[in-house]
Structures are given as C-alpha cells and as structure tokens.
Give the backbone structure.
Amino acid sequence: MKNIFITGISKGLGLELCRSLLRNEEMILYGVSRTMTPELEQLVKQYEGRLHWQAFDLAKTGAIEAELFDGFITPGTILHGFIDNAAILYKDLVVHINSSGLSELMKVNVEAPMILTKCVLRNFMQHRTKGSIIHFSSICAHDGFNGLAMMGASKGALESFSRSVACEYGRYGIRSNVVVIGLLEMGMGFSVNDRQSTGLKSRSPLGINTQYSSIEQMVELLLSDASYSITGQNIHINSGIR
Ligand SMILES: NC(=O)c1ccc[n+]([C@@H]2O[C@H](COP(=O)([O-])OP(=O)(O)OC[C@H]3O[C@@H](n4cnc5c(N)ncnc54)[C@H](OP(=O)(O)O)[C@@H]3O)[C@@H](O)[C@H]2O)c1
C-alpha cells in the first residue's frame, strides 16, 4: 500500500488526480481543501477507506503541524508521497498590488508548501521511507504574462525550494521534483481568455494546450520506484511552448 498526501482535492487538477490515482488499488490518499464539493463527496463515498479528506485552510500556516500532522496524518501513518497541488491565483497588474492579496498568495502558494514539506520530510525520515515530493509550478514562472507577475514569482520560489530539498534529503533516498505546467483546460486554466489560449496554442509545435493525461502519467511515474533517479528537476509539460 502507498499512502499519498495531496493538497487541493475539491476541484480541478487535484480532484482529477485523486480519481486517477485511486484506480490503483495500492493507493491510499489523504487530501485537504477548504471545501467539500459534490464531486469530491461522491469520490469519498466511492473509495471509502482509501480517500480520507480533511477540511483545512492552508493560509492558516501556523496550524498546519498540529491540525494536519497530528490529528489527520498521525505519526503512525507512513507516507510515501506528497503532491503539493493547492494554490490560489492572484491576477493583477503590478501597479495594483495590494498587500492582503499578495500576503494570501504567498501564504498558500509558498509558505504552506514549505511547512508541509517540512512535516512530510520528518514523516519520511521517521519511517525511513524513500518518499517522493511533487510540486506544481506554471509556465508563468518562466515567461512573462500581463497580470501574472506575482503568481509567477510564487511558483519560482517553489522551484528553487524544491531543488535545495532534493540536495538536502537525497542522502535519505528522498526525492523532490516540480512539474511545470502549461495551460490546462481545467481549473485555473479557465481564467485565461480565448485570445490568450489561442496565443499559447500558436506557440506550441503541437498546436495544443497541455493535456491532463500527460500530467497524470508524470505524477504516477514520479510516485513510483521507476523514477528513482529523477530528483531536483523541473519537468516542463506544456506541449513544447516556445
Ligand atoms: N489549470 C492550469 O492551467 C494550471 C496551469 C499551471 C499550473 N497549474 C497548477 O496546478 C495546480 C492546481 O491548479 P487547478 O487549476 O486545479 O486550480 P483550482 O481548480 O483553482 O483548484 C485549486 C485547489 O486548491 C484548493 N485550495 C485553494 N486555496 C486553498 C487553501 N487556502 N487551503 C486549502 N486548499 C486550497 C482548492 O480547494 P478549496 O477552494 O475548496 O479550498 C482547490 O481544490 C496549482 O498548483 C496550479 O498553480 C495549473
């Protein structure tokens, strides 16, 4: 059995990944989000005992250790993987930055993943697990887009954090990688208008947006022992956008 902790499972990519991973009977998922959606409720019922859900607001970074890594994931739970999926989108021009929006973005997209990573690493080391950590970044950390400067900066921070985690904990067999996603036709991807979506497709040699199946397959590979020599990487899945 493999116990995987995943954030942001109420909708979008996190919900779809739960659906995909649970088809493998070896997987037990521990997921968090602020809300329970009808789709998630149905999945929890369908996979009773293999999909555990906890309501939690990741902006409450000071409560992560006590509420998630004592009550929900107990010290006796042996984790094998962490999928850092939850994020918020803060879209605005830089001249309009407001400190509360910026602060929430940094709490959910940067601070929470770092504290969660600390707790997951401790769990891996306590149980001598050669665990796999997967963060999601975005093409906006590598290219300029109007309105996405703050979002891009938050994802860039995660990428450099992951590289050093891979360095510090490689000697325990623990791996950390980032999947850098282009534009998906789900979740936050719907906040992009048709003109922007067409613009991105036209920069792809394949002429398509990012397919969910490519993300799913990469996540499954990174969670498996077959990817044991892959660590400290940013893996770009974006239909080859140039
Ligand atoms: N979709 C794309 O085109 C795209 C492109 C590049 C990168 N990505 C990355 O892929 C990941 C998933 O994106 P998505 O498109 O699936 O986004 P989404 O549809 O907006 O889903 C985000 C998930 O995160 C959860 N979440 C947000 N704030 C939270 C908080 N404070 N506490 C706990 N949970 C919280 C949400 O649940 P609640 O609202 O119920 O809390 C939801 O389940 C993100 O890291 C995103 O940056 C997506």
Notes: The mean pLDDT is 97.
